[in-house]
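job 3f2a | input accepted
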Amino acid sequence: MLARGAAGLRGAGRRGGGLLRRAGAAGRGLRSSPPARTAMPSWVIDRYGRNEVLRFTRDMALPAIRFPNEVVIKVHAASLNPIDLSMRSGYGATALNMKRDPLKLNSVENEFPLTLGRDVSGVVMECGLSVSYFKPGDEVWAAIPPWKQGTLSEFVVASGNEVSFKPKCLSHTEAASLPYVGLTAWSAVNNVGGLNDKNCGGKRVLILGASGGVGTFAVQLVKAWGAHVTAVCSNDAIILMKKLGVDDVIDYKSGNLEERLKTLPLFDFILDNVGGSTEKWALDLLRKWSGATYVTLVTPFLINMDRLGVADGMLRTGVTIGSKTVKHLCKGVHYRWAFFMPSGPCLDEIAELVDSGKIQPVIDQVFSFADVPKAFLKLEGGHARGKTVIDVINKK
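job 3f2a | predicted structure (396 res):
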């Protein structure tokens, strides 16, 4: 990975000619070049709230390269994730603002106007000086961290180490459905859960909340690695689960879920996309003293910081995860939290699985760029079967 850019940074090609900047000063007595564009169309919010806070503008400032390892991407397609609904409402604002301005150099909070959207599939337009792995014109995909400006706009800036070449077999619309959910699932299953293509074969895996974006990706990932997968979802997603290769499907609305799962053999790994009361009984379904692991993506980290502030929120979070880890370790199982982690190298591995046919995008609906508010309402309605995608290039 160190070969991808200077100082260990994965980057993106040569500088790219300043496509988004002013085209050069005029010499004496000569006509100057026309000024470069300074604004772009974008969906933004100026305050936190419900769907009415979404605002379309053609005057969002064009993103600029500020660090030598950054790239500018022309967005062809984006997609929505539950975190976009949460961010629209202000969830996690305390932690995200701390990440944006850790030294409190700005006198006022400066997140607005804020562009949502984490996934991008598009084309590299311009590259920082230290970037050597991509070049302008390359088709790429990425998941942009939530503390940065998002992808519901014409252009977006990403760090080179967040970017990867788009899978060759996918269109931009298809590719945009995968990066955020793929990296979230990869973080939970591989980075935190310790599963990989060498040790996953034959393991019994339970996925709670299997029909959403993260769930459908996680199902395909562990199946590609040879696991026996049990998926919990609603009845109308059973056919989808079977198409993805799930071995056993449990309808959570049909009878007592806990009792039904207890009739099955014990599991080696559980991924919990649901949270709530499931945590109280799900760990009892793991094989004791065998290295079995429960990983949840539903954690109190951001809400603790919102409610208690940075210091007290982090303290409360540390006490919670520490006490639960020790409690369950004494019972012979591992308890873990997982979070989305941006990573170009992980997207490289995901792209290989996609191009080999082992993982396919699961898309619920595609919206035009003009219909972003409708896309948010669709996602907010719940029970999506896969991802909600935005076709940014098609303005219809």
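job 3f2a | The chain is about 30% helix and 20% strand.
job 3f2a | closed
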